[in-house]
Amino acid sequence: MTKPLGELESQRAALLHELAQTGDMRRGSINEVYRRCGKDNCACVDPAHPGHGPFYAYTVKVAGKPRRCSFAPARCCRKSSARSPSTNISAPPASA
Ligand SMILES: [Zn+2]
Fold this sequence. Notes:
Layout: H1 5-20, E1 29-35, E2 52-62, E3 65-71, H2 75-80
Antiparallel strand pairs: 1-2, 2-3
Bound molecules: zinc ion.
Zinc ion binds near residues 37, 39, 42, 44 and 52.
């Protein structure tokens, strides 16, 4: 069931070529985040409350360190699906 190394390398090159054809892509991950505001009289004080949100956080490694920035999904995505934000992400924060 094992394949020769040359065949695996060819397969990897073909997959990388196919992946490169998809256009604008960025490294990193996008997570849905809920936050507590910290106000004593807010509903989010209740441990059963999920928190405010969702907000979206884009995380990418810059110079080996994780960098995180939040972003708002595109207006069209907020209307259609809050679970699949679009990519109006600005560049990650510059490394310190
Ligand atoms: Zn709150």
